[in-house]
Amino acid sequence: MTKGLYEIKNRQQADREIIKKYTTQGPRYTSYPPVPFWNTEAFDTAIWQDEIRKSAGKIAGGISVYIHLPYCESLCTFCACHKRITKNHEVENSYIDAVLKEWQLYLHMMPVMPVIRELHLGGGTPSFFAPANLERLLQGIINTSEIAPDHEFSFEGHPNNTSADHLQTLYDLGFRRVSFGVQDYDARVQEAIHRIQPFENVKYVTEKAREIGYTSISHDLVFGLPFQSLNAIDQTISRTLKLNPDRIAFYSYAHVPWLKGNGQRGFDENDLPSGANKRVLYEYGLTSLEEGGYVEVGMDHFALPHDELFRAMNEGTLNRNFMGYTTSDSKILIGLGVSSISDSGGAFAQNIKDIDTYKKCVEEGVLPLGKGHLLTTEDLFVREQITNIMCRFETSWPDETWTAEERTQIFDKLEGLAEDGLIVYHAEGLRVTEKGRPFIRNISMVFDQYLNRADLRKKMFSETV
User: Fold this and answer.
1) pLDDT-derived band of residue 83, with 50, 70 and 90 as boundaries?
2) What domains sit in the chain, N to C, each tagged with a CATH number?
3) How confident is the model at residue 324 (pLDDT cuts 50, 70, 90)?
4) Rounded Cα distance, 144 and 29, in Å
5) What is the pLDDT at residue 262?
6) Cis peptide before 245, with omega less than 30 degrees from 0?
7) What is the largest CA-CA distance in the chain?
8) Contacts of 88-92 spanning 24+ positions with Cβ under 8 A
């Protein structure tokens, strides 16, 4: 184990009260405002269509496209994503038909041909789909768009079913980045989360992707899983470092079993490490990854110095949207597929979550929107502050930004964060300290006006620590 383990435990003992103080529910801020606070009553399809139609400059400058592929052959009980469990692969073609019809609806709305700078396949399990079907889907998007010379195409691959054919087919279509969901290698943890995948499977797809020519390979790890121990984290990270992925996502497990359709009920909550114990797992993982040559990028992410994610952070061009951290500066994100979320820069829209209803809508030529939100001037300002904190660990604002009451409320919280050593602040800005980085969600929450007005006795978000 890492030599600094005793130092980590000593530091955890000293910070135990701070961990307890800042362990609360809070958003991950892939958007602002978070989805539970959207003003859905003031939103409709006509508003969304108008947002897209008036965005010619943004569309011509380059957009991001996210395609949600919701099918999985088995249920992972740590997963909070929208998915449908089936072994029937006949569902692939009809779903692809629906996504391509939805894309056509957007093309008819756009005032100019879109330039795609970023495209991501998420899920669910994108590698559930046969390579030939993924090619048909993607050709339907690519052949009706311009592709930016510096485009970034990426997908999420399951180590158990991502084949060499998947990797080669997507590479030939322009994909250079792949993220493999590893989570944890410990047998007991894998059994609890129903995600059994041997190290050999991960090793094979990682080495095959590198052999084919992928330039950015990422492994997703999770801490805070049921039965997860320090030894399990040590073994998982040691094996991960042997494969030397370009990026590593080291996520805190988000326990949100109250969400509809969630499978997070396959184990007892008492089996989850929490509070200070969970933080030890994080600190140990952080130290191990840094010793392995990785640099922390934003929240939950690590990259080797040659990776674009690291360079974007250093150059101040790192961004964050519904897909997480991104190096793209596109101002529009079009989400295709069931439950996908789109962002026009001034509004958000989320698709219907039921697959059959989604298909019926697009078959009838109707945008399959379930809900949305039109951003206010305040939303746009707070969104900028939170994005700066999440991507650059600092932010600034004009001196007379808030009312006297708001200023008192915000600066009282900033003073508390400063007293705990998490930030350094002044009248027009703040900087997150090294000690404060694990609490970046809490720091962002200071500026969240919806959260400040909410009744948090109701479960809405996962815990921040």
Assistant:
1) confident
2) 1-33+376-456+461-465 (1.10.10.920), 35-333 (3.80.30.20)
3) confident
4) 32
5) 52
6) no
7) 62
8) 89/128, 89/130, 92/128, 92/129, 92/130, 92/133
Phi, psi (5° rounding) for residue 240? -65, -45
Strands 115-123 and 146-157: parallel
Query: What distance lies between CA 428 and its chain's CA centroid?
Result: 29
3-state SS, the chain, equals CCCCHHHHHHHHHHCHHHHHHHCCECCCCCCCCCHHHCCHHHCCHHHHHHHHHCCHHHHHHCEEEEEEECEECCCCCCCCCCCEECCCCCHHHHHHHHHHHHHHHHHHHCCCCCEEEEEEEEECCHHHCCHHHHHHHHHHHHCCCEEEEEEEEEEEECCCCCCHHHHHHHHHCCEEEEEEEEECCCHHHHHHHCCCCCHHHHHHHHHHHHHHCCCEEEEEEEECCCCCCHHHHHHHHHHHHHHCCCEEEEEECCCCCCCCCCCCCCCCHHHCCCHHHHHHHHHHHHHHHHHCCCEEECCCEEECCCCHHHHHHHHCCCEEECCEEECCCCCEEEEECCCCEEECCCEEEEECCCHHHHHHHHHCCCCCEEEEEECCHHHHHHHHHHHHHHHHCEEECCCCCCCHHHHHHHHHHHHHHHHCCCEEEECCEEEECCCCHHHHHHHHHCCCHHHHHCCCCCCCCCECC
- Nearest-10 Cα torsion for 335, 392, 377, 439: 90
d(CA 16, CA 344): 42
Q: Print burial letters for 208-245: b (CB count within 10 Å at least 16), e (below 16).
A: bbbebebebbbbbbbbbbbbbebebbbbbbeebbebeb
- The pairing of beta strand 332-336 with beta strand 324-326: unpaired
Q: Which single residue is written with the structure tokens 């600190």? A: 283
- Confidence at 273, pLDDT banded by 50, 70, 90: confident
Beta bridge partners of 155: 121, 178
In one letter, which amino acid is 267? F
d(CA 400, CA 149): 42
Burial class (CB in 10 A: 0-12, 13-18, 19+), 346: middle
Q: How far apart are CA 344 and CA 348, in angstroms?
A: 7
Query: Is residue 130 scored above 90 in pLDDT?
Result: yes
